[in-house]
Amino acid sequence: MTRQYELVERVLRYQPNADEALLNRAYVYAMKAHGNQKRASGAPYFSHPLEVAAILAEMRLDDATIATALLHDTIEDTDTTRGEIDALFGREIGTLVDGLTKIKKLDLVTKKAEQAENFRKLLLAISSDIRVLLVKLADRLHNMRTLEHMKPAKRKIIAEETMDIYAPLAGRMGMQWLREELEDHAFRSLNQEAYSAVVERLKILRERNQGLIDEIEAALTSKLEGAEVGSIVAGREKKPYAIWSKMERKQISLEQLSDIYAFRIVVPQVEDCYRALSVVHTTWHAVPGRFKDYISNPKQNDYQSIHTTIVGPRHQRVELQIRTERMHSVAEYGVAAHALYKDANGANGKSGVPSQDSSAYRWLRHLVGMLLDGDNPEEFLEHTKLELFQDQVFCFTPKGRLIALPRGANPIDFAYAVHTDVGNTCVGAKINGRPMPLVTELRNGDEVEIICSKAQLPPSAWQSLAVTGKARSAIRRATRDAVRAQYGKLGREILVRAFQRREKTFSEESLAAALGRLSQKTAEDVMAAVGRGELASADVVRAVFPEEKSQEPAKRRRKVKRTEEGWFGLGKVMGLKFRWPGSSGRPREEQGPISIPIRGLRGDLPVNFADGGAVPGDRIVGILNPGQGITIYPIHAEALKAFDEEPERWIDVTWDIDEDNPQRFPAKLAVTVLNEPGSLAQIASVIGEADGNIDNIKMTNRVHDYTEILIDLEVWDLKHLNDIIAGLRAKDMVSSAARASA
Ligand code: MN
Q1: Fewer beta carbons under 10 A from the terminal one: N or C of the chain?
Q2: Which CATH class is domain 196-342?
Q3: What is the pTM for the complete model shown?
Q4: How far is the CA of 149 from the centre of ligand 1 (A)?
Q5: At 456, phi and psi to the nearest 5?
Q6: Is the pLDDT assigned to residue 512 strictly greater than 70?
């Protein structure tokens, strides 16, 4: 156990102006407060806060942090109150201890329902002062070092929490040694078998390669000395978890594993890094594709180093990191390391207080900002509450943006989570800098770079590969658009031929004048409608050249009067219940069930049309309303956007029209007319003459000279509806007529 004077001396060594009395008071206070409490190991409880303080002293943190470490369990585990800490040690330390007390109670892995909220609280507590996180990580490290004394069930929870939350957080804060040690303890506890296998393998390799580390160290040192590069070379064996995760990542077996040694060359100046690199590369062969310059391109957590792998003296692959002393401190101590250089730079601030300006800290602030940002509640809700935290992986874009995804998610989900356009144009992915298949399951802390190509359209098969609803519905939408484009192409070919037959040349511009007559918005719409067979090419030709007499006599419109018998008959055959949408003038219920001739429906769920209706010729989709049946929407309905995130509710349906038993379908029109006497009568007569049945008329939105009229009507099909719209648009007093979307 570290003694009081040892701890104080250690702090004074790196922070000569440290408040010695404060440290002594905190030491004595905590020792008394914990009294004769014991740890699970049987050791006096006070040994724990003392060790935590010692870990932080090694990281050279300021006196307030060390005092906080000594006091960190007093409020939670003894009679001490926040008020007492404030009174005895000041508000700064009181706030820090209070932050630690708050997060101690958070259960981050077991109570599913509370995880998201708890994670939120954790981030809030640690973001107010980064020292709370540093003390928490040191606390967790000491608990992990002494984990074997805990009961197995408790051990598992602590290990999971460490692996999923604290180790990645340490990594993100740039504290690599801490991350590695936390991961290693957690790995041993969570996967005992794998841990033993790796340790066993390491033992064998160590025996086989006896003296190898020394030999390589000596070779590197002498070569660098020869080139007059002052350096310190240090070799080390990688940690079992680092080796294990590499095996998993690269899908290699323990037997194939060879590069388990990593060497570090630490030099005084940045230029020396490149000189050392040239010495290494001219002396030994470099392994292709393994060179990375994080000096000119630092990682998001401020990490800088040159990485390379060479084939070493015994034909062994040797991983090398080349960095300056300062880079080394940043790599090891992360956010805490900035404190070491503050005074040297003449910057203000107490020595030993971690910098709030590091990129890692900015990342944390950003994450918390996102949590608190009222504009973006869905983003975070999606991240945390809907998908429970334990079932999530946290990944990062190359720029350090955090992307939270459900477990099992792959780069496709990642791409769509970044942006729909990124997803739609995604062709490949690099995970932690390596090209990987798009189906690779992402893991906590992965850095994912999406490779895009403009020419790409998402294959519809991705719908089943994607895990998130967002990705699936976006793929569905993009596929739909792509299908539409294909129909457009087909329609174009049909029209080119139809025009040729009449010795005309087709051009998209020639359609412009006929758009109104065809009730289409754009030339693309016309071509797509022709491609889908909703619009006859002959009708398009007639619309473009109305002066030309048509070769074929126009077909007579079906003039079938609706008979109650007919409706009832169909209804009985189909066995489907039908509820009319909207407010019809007549009470439909009295007329009994009417059929909806649609294929692709399962079971005997009640079916109805969305408010705007759908008519044959419309591409349609069914939306499942649990407990209420299925609603049919035309695919263009605005209302469908509301279901984009719930692809499981979408049912593929098609029309099943009986030519011998024509049937009418509901539709809704929005017509804007001049406020003139007789306008309404004219509209009614246009619809009546075109054989449309008006169910209901509603006048809304009287603005100045115009009135908007919403008309519920029944038509035979899309072409019939379009004819009616075209007829309305032809009237002078109609300023616009269009289908009203649900
Ligand atoms: Mn503790």
Answers
A1: N
A2: alpha beta
A3: 0.51
A4: 15
A5: -85, 145
A6: yes
Task: Encode pLDDT of 614-648 as tens digits.
Answer: 888 788 888 877 667 788 888 878 888 888 777 66
Q: Does domain 665-739 have CATH number 3.90.420.10?
A: no
Q: What is the pLDDT of residues 646-704, one digit of tens each?
A: 766 777 777 777 766 678 888 999 888 877 777 788 888 889 888 888 888 888 766 66
Among the listed residues 223, 365, 235, 227, the one whose alpha carbon sits nearest the alpha carbon of residue 283: 223
Ligand 1 center to 65 CA (angstroms): 14
77 classed as catalytic:
yes
User: In the annotation, is 76 catalytic?
Assistant: yes
- CB 55, CB 142: distance < 8 Å: yes
Distance 72 CA to ligand 1 centre (A): 6
Residues forming CATH 3.30.460.10 domain(s) in the chain: 196-342
CATH fold of the domain at 4-195: Hypothetical protein af1432 (1.10.3210)
Query: What CA–CA distance (Å, rounded) separates 180 from 239?
Result: 7
Which of 9, 58, 76, 493 is catalytic? The answer is: 76
Q: Whole-number mean pLDDT of the chain?
A: 78
Residue-level pLDDT at 623: 84
H/E run at residue 14: helix 4-14
| CA terminus-to-terminus distance, the chain | 73
Which part of the chain is CATH 3.30.70.260?
665-739
Q: 190-222, pLDDT tens digit by residue?
A: 888 888 888 888 888 788 777 888 888 888 899
Q: Give the C-alpha separation, 43 to 34, whole Å.
A: 12
How far does residue 106's CA lie from ligand 1's centre (Å)? 13
